[in-house]
Write a structure and sequence with these properties.
The chain is mostly helical and about 160 residues long. It has 2 domains: about 110 residues, no CATH class; about 35 residues, no CATH class. It is about 65% helix and about 0% strand. The protein contains 9 helices and no strands. Helix 5 packs antiparallel against helix 6 and helix 8 crosses helix 9. The longest helix is centred in the middle third of the chain and has 17 residues.
Length: about 160
């Protein structure tokens, strides 16, 4: 969204979006104090990028919902705003999320995520990088068990 709008404005000689890439990547709670004034100024200029950022920030608050019903209600409010925004990338993402809504809502029902699996995958990928790859499948499997299995490298000796 930002790139397309930046190019459009730049072609007209307007460079107010210049150097703002990092600004739009921050969440509101992590925005450095030195950039808060600039964000306010850009938000007040009714830019498409500013609207897209606001819609993204509003969606992030969905994860604070406590129940399935609350999350579903929150999503439908966000979805109607996103669809009415007439911002093509936002509308596309909103429709995709709507198609997967039942699977997204399961997070609120069970409070489970795939974060542990992603953590293990990350650890395995770092093993591959450290070893510069594996030629032997058995060695690769052994290394995964050793590093991800929670084994104590220095077990305590029992006194007899």
């Amino acid at each position: 969204m930002r790139i397309a709008e930046y190019r459009t404005h730049k072609a007209m000689g307007d460079d107010r979006l210049k150097g703002s890439k990092q600004l739009w990547l921050y969440g509101l709670e992590n925005l450095p104090e030195r950039w808060q004034l600039r964000l306010e100024q850009l938000q007040n200029q009714k830019l498409k990028t500013g609207r897209a950022w606001s819609i993204k920030e509003y969606f992030r608050d969905m994860w604070t919902c406590q129940t399935v019903a609350e999350a579903r209600s929150y999503f439908h409010a966000w979805y109607s705003w996103a669809i009415r925004s007439r911002l093509k990338p936002i509308v596309a993402v909103a429709r995709m999320l709507h198609r997967h809504l039942e699977r997204i809502i399961q997070v609120f029902a069970h409070r489970l995520t795939n974060a542990p699996a992603e953590g293990i995958n990350n650890k395995i990928q770092s093993l591959i990088k450290k070893a510069y790859g594996y030629r032997n499948r058995l060695r690769f499997k052994t290394d995964i068990f050793f590093h991800c299995g929670g084994l104590d490298l220095y077990p305590t000796l029992s006194q007899c």
